[in-house]
Amino acid sequence: MTDQSYQPSITALRAFVAIAKHLHFGSAAAELGVSQPSLSQALSGLESGLGLKLVERTTRRVMLTAEGRRLLGSAIAACDAVDDFLLDAAGDLDPLSGTVRLGFIPTVAPYILPRVLRGLGEQRPDLELLVVEDQTDRLLGQLREGTIDAAILALPAGAPGIGEIPMYFVDFVLAVPTGHPLADKTRLAPKLLEDLPLLLLDEGHCLRDQALDVCQAAGVSPNVRPTRAASLTTAVQCVEGGLGVTLIPRTAVAVETASGGLATAEFAQPRPGRRIGLVYRESSGRGEAYRQLASEIAALVAESGDVEPVIQTS
């Protein structure tokens, strides 16, 4: 039973969060800059004070108990609150200096990162971005666990405790092989998708679901081909090889058409597309800082002319 007078230290909470993040005592100790015995002692004190077993450790693996999984979110929120308190106490210390771990979905990262990294490097020389590329669900899981600080993905995320900042809207275009009858056409009706062999990304990619949403909105049942790609580049290569057509965001066109084997066609207004935004833990207390970061990233991406910003960019 928990001792009602027990007050866990921030050191103990950080130890628990680091162990939960790495599921490895050595890696957790290295992150915190402490010895493994000190880390184990901090965790043991936390478990003793709470009267709960948070971490199960065997000779082969480390895992969270049910109680550990239940309390992890609260522990992360507590650490975030202390970090925010220290930032406030520091006065004019910029929360967007130092290291920020920023996630990107795979259908965004390759197409905006060069411009974003160069631009932020010039605008914020004290900011060090650590980039993590993964699918939406896994990024949201890492965000909740505190493994990353924020992520850029398609909205809405619809996750409890996760704040959303819309950044820009990007159209979808139809990718077809060069020489295809629809190549370079404009004002296509989405209903045309019913008559085309449609290639989709594999399960777990939000772009797959968004392409199907476009078909549903047009009232068509697409002819989905059995080929499924793990990346947009692979899907495009299959299009170039004549296996079908696919939808790609306009931001991807310059990169994916560089080989010369791909052409595109545009849909009629209102063009289908998606909103891209930045998501973060609401418990972090850094909503305003992340709004500023989102605004700066949106402005950089908008310089390409491929997107329509939906956030104030100044």
Automatic annotation (TrEMBL):
Residues 8-65 form the HTH lysR-type domain. InterPro entries: LysR_HTH_N, LysR_subst-bd, WH-like_DNA-bd_sf, WH_DNA-bd_sf. PROSITE patterns: HTH_LYSR. Signal peptide: none annotated. Pfam families: HTH_1, LysR_substrate. GO terms for molecular function: DNA binding; DNA-binding transcription factor activity. One of its GO terms (cellular component) is protein-DNA complex. Keywords: Activator, DNA-binding, Transcription, Transcription regulation. Belongs to the LysR transcriptional regulatory family. This is Probable hydrogen peroxide-inducible genes activator. It comes from Gordonia phthalatica.
